[in-house]
Structures are given as structure tokens and as C-alpha cells.
Amino acid sequence: MKARINEEGFFRGHFPDEFITENWDSFINGDFVYNWILVDTDSPETSLMKPKWDGTQWIEGATPKEILDRNKILIESLSADYRGRINAILLPYLPDLVIDDIPIPQHILLQRSALQSECDLLIKAIDPNQSMSKPSKTNYK
Length: 141
Known about the structure:
Layout: E1 2-5, E2 11-15, H1 17-22, E3 27-28, E4 31-32, E5 37-39, E6 51-53, E7 58-60, H2 64-90, H3 94-100, H4 106-126
Antiparallel strand pairs: 1-2, 1-5, 3-4, 6-7
Helix pairs in contact: 2-4
């Protein structure tokens, strides 16, 4: 198995030796296989956003801005998903609360709190300064 990298060292895929041998003279993905830059190494870690080969190991090739932008999207997506889950459990009780002033049952409020905590843990794994309940002032611009 060989890793294909481009001129800057960025990962472009893994290819079995048989594939490379069988397609040596083929034009694939914009170039002849015999022109590909191939490295005999394992796949890059899945935690790397933009894997880059530095000659001895895979490193993160994404810029800090690219990482922040990706994190912003991940956090917004997680927050939206969990807000939807929370709304789904609260919604059936809102008419009673608004019209008859009947409080939302405690077990539902506990479910909401548990979902918020679960979401916060996932968000903090992406950015320790963020949470669903208390968004930080991290500059994602």
C-alpha cells in the first residue's frame, strides 16, 4: 500500500501496490500513475483535517483559520442538532405552560439538562472554550 501525495506533501489517497503496477501507464486523477509521488507509509490519522507528509510523518497541513472554520461548522451543527432534540421534548408541554401555567415536568427538565450536558461535552472536545449553554467569544471570523 502506498500513499499518494502532491508536490506540497498533501495526502491524495492510498493505493494498493497491485493497482499501481496494473495502472502504471494510465492517466488517473490528472496525471500518469508513473508521475505520482508515492510514499510507503500508513494512512494518516483521521484526526488530521488536511494530512501533510513532512518526509517522515503525517502532520496537520490545515491553517489555523481552516481549523477554526471547520470547528465553527461542527459546533453549529452539534448545537442545532441538540437544540432540535431539546425542542422536541419540550414542545408538547409548552401549550400547557403558556395557556394554563402548568409547569414543565421535572423529568423533562432533567432530560433537557442531560442533552445540554452531552452536547457541551462533544463541543468541548472540539473547542474547550465553547459550549452549547455558554458560547465563548472565540473569534471564528
